[in-house]
Design brief:
Length: 579
């Protein structure tokens, strides 16, 4: 462990993942590595504190959070299912590796005849007795056959073709080989040393061959495992909504004549939605208990960057069908993983907990920010700070300030008895100058004298407010006049005022989160184990890392770390208030 945030600890493993697998500014400067490590660590600590705060306030029961967590558990459990049922059962033996290395060092020159139909391939193969027959046999055009030659490099061809070729002697004719969507009859015309593999260092060659063998065994194991799991499961796409969506995609994509690849951008997705407006809520795909509407699928396609070549718009039906098939199968695999309780394994629980804390911290930030508001006076202050030429609204007051609350109470009794504000100020004010003027102030911007200027801006002339307990004694005042800025007649100023309001709200929300964090940190306690942090070695390369999930799909490798450092500078004991 390298840090503590209340009852939660930050492990070295989590820190390294979230430091290394996400982008971060300034990491290329090696001299700043220790400072960057501290920034990331303190931001992770802040996330843990906010997550604990959210849970304490019951925000972890929010339906959106629960849905996000279930989807995350499903993704990670599905990945665990793939590791357990495919990767773990597709191990490469030492003998297989040695044989693979030996084959990789050999390159073959082959001749082959390709057929669309198995019966054609079988008939032609039956006519071949010797290699001369392979070379000279005339094949009728009705057989849809193709003769050609190729250089076969191990690991690059279809495994079925490769296996047949490497088992042949030179000038021996193979039986009919099924590969991909066709059928082959082939012969080996030459055997050579592979220049590509032979040039590799032994450890690199070993790793390359191991990768290819493992990938092939995983594919074979997946083809064996998946049908058994999916058998009997409910999964389909509704044809009528599917055809409507296909037509809408074809129509929208055909309107873009310039792009070589046309993607479903947000704008195009909106156009598709408009065409499918009457059926956006119709069920398009079903997988077990999960249902996707047409609108759901359009949103998903847009997020995942669905696109086709401009010259191949006719492939949209096949592409969309493939996308939906993958979507349904991944969902069913996810439900199977949850059925097997793979989300309760130690590794998955650890990863889900990191995502849970990230989700809760985000919800807590939103909740804290949602409790903030910006008064007009604060907005004018922001606008004035941005542009000193802006004329801020002004107010004029008649103000009563006394030394004690007893004196203020007596003054209020006089006002209640019918005395004028001016007479009461002359009688009770603790300020000699105010007694001379009857408490009438000069005009001043509403951004001045907080909180008086801000409060006065909300009043109408003649209204009174107070008393306020302020340094120097209680204050009670009456608004005598207000000079407002002409927002209604100045569209430019009105627009800038709205922008300033948004900026003010953002600043106040940020400050509210900062104060909340400082308060939680003081209450729960925070520790950083500096020696352990310093001992951790990190790279200077920021990167965006995605995790490729078993059975397809991807997700961010780890949650983003929101920079959160201002709370370290706040001393709650010095009068800072917490929302």
């Amino acid at each position: 462990m390298i840090a503590r945030a209340g009852d939660v600890f930050v492990s070295e493993h989590e820190f390294l993942e979230r430091y290394e697998l996400l982008p971060g500014f300034g990491r290329q400067a090696r001299g700043q590595a220790e400072a960057r490590k501290l920034e990331v660590l303190y931001s992770i600590i802040a996330e843990k504190l906010l997550a604990a705060d959210a849970a304490a306030r019951g925000l972890d029961t929010d339906a959106v959070i629960q849905l996000a967590l279930r989807e995350t558990r499903k993704l990670l459990a599905r990945d665990a299912l793939y590791k357990h049922e495919v990767i773990a059962k597709a191990a490469v033996s030492g003998k297989e590796l040695s044989q693979g290395i030996a084959l990789a060092l050999i390159e073959l020159s082959i001749r082959y005849i390709y057929f669309d139909r198995e019966e054609d391939a079988g008939f032609v193969r039956s006519q071949m007795r010797r290699i001369e027959d392979f070379r000279s046999l005339r094949i009728d055009s009705s057989f849809h056959a193709l003769r050609d030659t190729a250089t076969l490099v191990w690991g690059e061809a279809d495994p079925a073709v490769e296996s047949a070729a490497y088992h042949l002697k030179q000038n021996e004719i193979s039986p009919v080989v099924r590969a991909g969507t066709g059928f082959y009859v082939l012969t080996v015309s030459g055997v050579h040393r592979s220049p590509g593999y032979a040039s590799l260092a032994s450890d690199v060659l070993r790793d390359r061959v191991m990768t290819i063998l493992r990938r092939r065994k995983e594919k074979a194991r997946l083809e064996e495992f998946a049908p058994g799991v999916l058998r009997g499961k409910t999964g389909f796409a509704a044809p009528v909504p599917l055809n409507r969506l296909i037509s809408a995609l074809e129509s929208v994509f055909a309107q873009e004549p310039r792009d070589s690849v046309v993607y479903l951008t947000p704008a195009r997705a909106s156009a598709v939605d408009s065409i499918c407006a009457a059926s956006l809520g119709d069920t398009l795909a079903v997988a077990g208990s999960r249902v996707w509407t047409v609108g759901d699928v359009v949103d998903r396609l847009a997020r995942e960057g669905f696109g086709v070549q401009r010259t191949a718009l006719g492939s949209i039906p096949v592409r969309l069908n493939t996308e939906l098939k993958g979507l349904v199968q991944r969902e069913l695999m996810g439900e199977e993983a949850l059925r097997r309780s793979l989300d309760t394994t130690a590794d998955v629980r650890r990863e889900v907990e990191i995502w849970r804390q990230s989700f809760l911290a985000a919800v807590d930030r939103d909740a804290i920010a949602g409790g903030t508001n910006a008064s007009d006076a604060e907005v004018w202050a922001t606008l004035k700070w941005r542009d000193s030429s802006v004329t801020v609204p002004q107010v004029q007051l008649r103000e009563l300030r006394t030394t004690t609350f007893n004196q203020m109470q007596s003054a209020m009794e006089d006002l209640g008895g019918g005395a004028s504000m001016e007479d009461v100020v002359r009688k009770w004010s603790a300020d000699p100058a105010a007694r001379e003027t009857g408490g009438l102030s000069p005009w001043f911007p509403v951004t001045d004298r907080p909180p008086i200027g801000e409060i006065a801006f909300r009043l109408r002339p003649g209204e009174r407010y107070g008393p306020l307990d302020l340094p120097g004694g209680p204050v009670y005042f009456e608004l005598t006049g207000k000079k407002s800025a002409p927002l209604e007649g100045d569209t430019s100023l009105a627009r800038r005022f709205l922008q300033a309001r948004e900026e003010t709200l953002q600043m106040k929300a940020k400050r509210a989160v900062t104060l909340r964090l400082a308060s939680i940190a003081k209450e729960k306690g925070v520790d950083v184990y500096a020696d352990r942090l310093k001992a951790l070695k990190v790279t200077p390369i920021p990167m965006m890392t995605f995790r490729i999930l078993g059975f397809g799909g991807k997700m961010l490798a780890v949650p983003f770390v929101t920079p959160e450092l201002d709370w370290l500078e706040v001393d709650i004991s010095k009068g800072n208030t917490v929302p």
